[in-house]
Design brief:
Elements: H1 3-12, E1 36-41, E2 48-64, E3 71-72, E4 86-92, H2 101-111, E5 116-118, E6 121-123, E7 128-130, H3 146-154, E8 173-174, E9 184-185, E10 187-194, E11 200-208, E12 212-214, E13 221-223, H4 236-241, E14 255-262, H5 268-285, E15 286-287, E16 297-302, H6 312-333
Parallel strand pairs: 4-7, 14-16
Antiparallel strand pairs: 1-2, 2-4, 2-16, 3-7, 5-6, 8-9, 10-11, 11-14, 12-13, 12-15
Length: 347
């Protein structure tokens, strides 16, 4: 895309004509036609899973910028590979155990005859990613499995998305860079932007960052590593530079997993570019991000119900904005759990 056109697309994200999630009636990822979202949250400890359904099929793509991802079915999303339709994406707690969620989502969709018809069966394509939340709640043997994936898919709707301590955000925490002792509650957030011409881009994010969450509009920390007194935030930049706190030797579990959806018609290669641009939303709001211990992953689903010709750079600029908004909404919607206060508790 020409630099001038891309600059105009990025600038348009702040234009008054756009409807975004901060408006009076917030938009969610389900504002994208053909997208439904469901959660399943476990009662035994804070953990769960979230499923984004595109039963009519969507062009899929993924980018993994973190150095320690936990994912499944991502290779098939590469532009050079055969499969070009995705029927669901899941986000889950439970570390690698949470990848079992995929089986339940596949079973739900196959029972509805959703997927590629082959050999007398229906084979749904269900990529996904996990966050590390096993220490939260003190019972690491409890984690989402296939039954949770089935329940989340069955609960999916096109209405407003529940946010905060639900689904994949139930056990999410942030601010672990100097160690867990000063961490805070993360959560799950959803956001969307809609242009006057009908182009819509939304995002859903499970925010489990080791670093701080920063509002890019103000530069202020929204949630992150707390000070020793517990009533404010550490200077995350000083921590990273090693100027204020020594390195603790702690390997931070820093994973924010995201699904972006749009009603634009995109090829797999175009969707891949949108996924790359969408990672800017993480970079704007999380510090540090994309480190060797991160599992930061962004999926893109393009349903194609908006029939105008899509400008990839424009969609990508919208995606980065939606991701940033979803991350902020996730921590702002979170509520405290034992040992982990929420952003709403610290002013």
């Amino acid at each position: 895309m020409r630099p001038l056109l891309l600059a105009l697309a990025i600038a348009a994200a702040a234009a008054p004509g756009w409807q975004r999630s901060q408006d009076t009636a917030p938009l969610h990822i389900t504002a994208v036609d053909g997208v439904a979202v469901g959660h399943h949250t476990l009662d035994e400890r804070p953990t769960g899973c979230t499923v984004v359904l595109t039963e009519g099929g969507a062009t899929g793509a993924v980018t993994v910028f973190g150095g320690a991802p936990g994912t499944t079915e991502t290779d098939l999303l590469e532009p050079e590979n055969l499969v070009d339709q995705v029927h669901a994406v899941f986000l889950s707690g439970g570390s690698a155990f949470g990848l079992d969620v995929a089986g339940g989502v596949r079973r739900y969709l196959s029972e509805k005859k959703v997927g590629f018809a082959f050999g007398g069966a229906y084979v749904p394509i269900v990529p996904g990613a996990i966050i590390f939340d096993l220490p939260i709640g003190g019972r690491p043997e409890i984690r989402p499995g296939a039954d949770c994936g089935y329940a989340a898919a069955a609960a999916a709707s096109t209405g407003p998305v529940a946010e905060g301590n639900v689904g994949a955000g139930a056990g999410a925490t942030v601010g672990k860079t100097p160690g867990r002792g000063r961490a805070m509650k993360g959560g799950l957030g959803s956001a969307a932007l809609r242009l006057p011409d009908g182009l819509t881009v939304g995002a859903i994010a499970a925010v489990n960052a080791a670093g701080s969450i920063i509002d890019p509009r103000t530069g202020r920390i929204v949630a992150g590593a707390r000070t020793a007194s517990g009533d404010g935030f550490e200077d995350i930049r000083a921590i990273v530079r090693g100027e204020r706190l020594p390195r603790s030797g702690h390997a931070p579990e820093n994973t924010t997993v995201v699904v972006v959806a749009t009603n634009a018609r995109l090829t797999k290669a175009q969707a891949k570019r949108v996924a790359q641009m969408a990672q800017a939303g993480l970079a704007r709001t999380i510090l540090p991000v994309f480190t060797p211990g991160d599992g930061d992953t962004v999926f893109v689903l393009a349903t194609g119900t908006w029939t105008d010709e899509a400008d990839t750079g424009r969609v990508g600029a919208l995606a980065a904005e939606a991701v940033s908004d979803a991350i902020l909404r996730g921590v702002r919607a979170a509520t405290s759990i034992p040992g982990y206060p929420a952003a709403r508790d610290i002013r």
